[in-house]
Amino acid sequence: MINEKSVIQPFLSEEYLQDLTEILKKAGSLMAGRERANWIANNIPDSNNNEVLDEMRFRSLLLLLRDLFSQGWELTFKDGIANIHHPITPDNVETKQWYKDALLRERNKQLENDSIKKFILKMEKERNYNGDKVSIRNLILPVNQLLSDIEDYKEDAVRPYLQIIQSSSEKDEKTGFKLLDIWRYFRLTWTLPHKPTPGRNIFLLVRDSAQEYHPIIGIAALGSSIVQITCRDNEIGWTLEGIRERMDTMNDVTAGQIINSLSHSLVKSISGIEFRDLIGGEVNILNAKDYENTLSTFLKGTGSRPAAPRISSNLDEVNWSDVCQSPFYKVKRAKALLKLFKAQSFFSDLNINEPLEALRQLIMTSRGRSALSTALQSNKKEKVGANMMDIIVCGAIPPYNYLLGGKLISMLMMSPELTQEYQRKYKNQISVIASAMKGEPVVKPANLVFLGTTSLYETGSSQYNRLTIPKYALNDNEPLHKIGFKPLGVTKGFGTVYISDETVEALSGLTTKLHGRRVVNNTFGEGTSPRMRLIRAGLDALGLPSNHLLNHNFKRIVYGVKLADNAYEYLRGEENEPCYFLNQDKPHEMTEAICEFWRKRWLAMRINNNDIIQKLSQFDSNKFLLGHNYFENK
């Protein structure tokens, strides 16, 4: 019996299907891995013929199979039909190392891009700056000097500071390089391929002022939070499961607060959407049921889903009323309002004299759970894009990794310098989706209260595990209180990192040809993760099992960092102002206190370890350079 989750039976004509079968049979006779990938690659048509749909499907499919086989996916045949399976780790190789090698193969493919090669060589080539010969080498720690300083100054031999990159044109005073180019170069040295992330971003460097050119200790970046992470949402209280877990410790007072905040969230969400053109006038919340038929009738007559409108990057010049009246946003508004009105009408019927019992009744019935989920999601939508971010890059640069520089970079993510930068950068930023839904500019409070991140491997992260800062180290009067990273659960193992840009481009062309327009435009309002949605649409267009192929089966541990004592209450809408752990009026002093704690807690231990000193003395910066390590060995 064929496993429908893994079967490869694409939408191809008989001619192309026969060619595919012959290619796969030959691939199946070869050793797994690179040999299969190379065989597939040799059979890919040289260029994409945009006039023949079958040829576009055929080429896209072969590109995808090349990517999968290069990552170790397995190929079997049953009743003459090809099946593709998740990689099986060889018995003699640890899963972590196997996954690392798989990521490196994809990273190395990225480095073959001509523009990236040119960038690397430009950064490594010496040039004149302020009378000196400089290159990226100057920003890599000179080990001999460090070892001498360690002998003389002990842990004071390293003096870290945080440098937040505030613009793409900002330059380094020491070398003249753009700060963002410095960040990009060191990011390319990592195992994980670098993919730009849409949405809000903050990039930063951590440097060492103890050395002449202030070499790079590590790099980090914050990006817009992933919208759906179940274990994180359970922890915050944005899910039914989160509500259930809290009910054991609830009384009528806390239950009443939850019901009131959720009801208020529904009302606020409704008022944040233009509705007069859809229901024929003003809304009376008490008559929410009256609007459900009107909206349902409207949605039945809309036909196929319209395309999202293009929105100018200069948000101050956008006519939000026109965007709001576009077919795409009219449908989006009607769907959102219909769910909100249904939930609001249910909340209106609750017996609020016994809040805890009312909350139990909500959870016990399907209609109540639906209303509760809608209220929770409306609250989440208000906060997830404005008051939390993900740590998307965080780590030390050799040789500081030998000195546990990664722990320093991780702890500095809690510095008020980042919350202040987030406030500066986004306090006046117009929210695209909210503005399009309301028909006028909307600006949300930019209070950053929570950070999320994941380990690279399922075994966890030594960089984040049990990493906390005692508040006494930050001159706080609560000696037993700690702040830091908390494991929240594991991811479900979905992702697209192993699918190459070439394949994504081919899938984009295929879906455009099939639908007569781009189905994913990276346009605000269409939804989250454009790359994931585009690949899923392409797999569906090929007739392949998208859920199976997008589940790479490598789960990661999810971590969370509360920056405010009441972070969860603030994110749930139960409290209006965050109460930060660290003094927001003294951001630089707090950063210095974090660095001092790292020096005494971690650095002092490492520099007294002879094995670590030996590793430091053997570090060769020339071999670390991308040009030497990659291009010269080709």
Give a summary of the structure in a few sentences.
The protein is α+β, with helices and mostly antiparallel strands.
Architecture overview:
- By secondary structure, this protein is α+β, with helices and mostly antiparallel strands.
- It has three domains: 14-88 and 494-550, no CATH class; 109-225 and 387-415 and 450-492 and 557-562 and 582-633, no CATH class; 230-384, no CATH class.
- Helices cover 47% and strands 11% of the residues.
- It contains 27 helices and twelve strands.
- Strands 5-6-7-8-9-12-11-10 form an eight-stranded mixed β-sheet, sandwiched between helices. A two-stranded antiparallel ribbon has the order 1-2. A two-stranded antiparallel ribbon has the order 3-4.
- The longest helix is centred in the middle third of the chain and has 22 residues, at 327-348.
Summarize the helices and strands and which ones pair or pack.
Blueprint: H1 14-28, H2 34-42, H3 53-70, E1 74-78, E2 81-85, H4 95-111, H5 114-124, E3 127-129, E4 132-134, H6 143-153, E5 160-165, H7 179-187, E6 201-208, E7 216-224, H8 230-236, H9 240-247, H10 252-271, H11 276-279, H12 292-300, H13 320-324, H14 327-348, H15 355-364, H16 366-384, E8 388-396, H17 405-412, H18 416-426, H19 432-438, E9 450-454, E10 468-470, E11 482-490, H20 501-515, H21 530-542, H22 546-550, E12 557-562, H23 567-571, H24 587-607, H25 610-618, H26 621-624, H27 626-629
Parallel strand pairs: 8-9
Antiparallel strand pairs: 1-2, 3-4, 5-6, 6-7, 7-8, 9-12, 10-11, 11-12
Helix pairs in contact: 1-2, 2-3, 3-20, 8-9, 10-14, 10-15, 10-16, 12-14, 14-16, 15-16, 17-24, 20-21
Protein name: DUF4338 domain-containing protein
Pfam family, one: DruA
InterPro entries: DruA (IPR025639)
